[in-house]
């Protein structure tokens, strides 16, 4: 290891030590430990809700990369969710492929479609771009219904995983830890993007695309990079849900409602922040599941009215998202509680 690499490693280690030494660092570790202990006292229903939180959270985090960091209000991410879900369903059921091969196909297909769709649509701006991505969702929904003999049509189809995998996802405790681990990895990816060159360029494009281009940033290329990464993560969420829920349908996979849900969750939590999609998901998914379970049937759609009400309240009292309220709490904790000194700071 070179001297420069060693210095870089040491500086990263020092940053981690300093972060953990802060009261909010200890609070984060405490939250992680509590999350790991949840299966020991939670019911199967609570674990089911949390697994849905993790799956939805991955999709919201993915949307935040292109919508929050990049400022591109894409409403077509449900297409990638559908590719992930249907790749798993069709390849596992019809062709006997393993879940991992099927998921990889769904992710690769989503990335290719993101690139193909991104090049022409990123020349558009504002609501024209959003409308173009909506057209992609509706077009894929039509194709799935048109080729119903192959896809299962409007009815959809069940997913029959290998027995060993069925045993894993059927065990709520094991499934909780697996999906939680993938959820944490998606948070790490989002954090990496935020502080990488890609993240800085996306933020520059969001703030002023013309200025970013004038400074030499290839705006189309980096928007494509962000869109492709967002597509891959969303396809991962779709594949995870297919294997966990053991059923896919066009109304659930290629759904404009799902794309809007990702956007609303991120808006409520805080667009363009790392924590925003997490907070929004933890807040909104349990509410949606509760309303759907209690009311059921067609009345379950009232959950979307709840989304609208919450969004209005957030716009009035926390226009930058719920995460801004948490920032006040974080500042209070850091200013009130003592900070633990480390050797790196001495």
UniProtKB/TrEMBL annotation:
Chief site of localization: membrane
Entry-linked CDD domains: TM_PBP1_LivM_like
Keyword Transmembrane: yes
Topology of the protein relative to the lipid bilayer: Multi-pass membrane protein
Pfam families assigned to the protein according to its UniProt record, in alphabetical order: BPD_transp_2 (PF02653)
TM helices/strands, residue ranges: 20-40, 46-66, 73-92, 98-119, 128-148, 174-193, 224-244, 264-287, 299-318
UniProt entry keywords in alphabetical sequence: Cell membrane, Membrane, Transmembrane, Transmembrane helix
Entry GO CC: plasma membrane
Subcellular location: Cell membrane
InterPro entries xrefs: ABC_transp_permease (IPR001851), LivM-like (IPR043428)
Protein name as it appears in the record: Branched-chain amino acid ABC transporter permease
Species this chain originates from: Halobellus litoreus
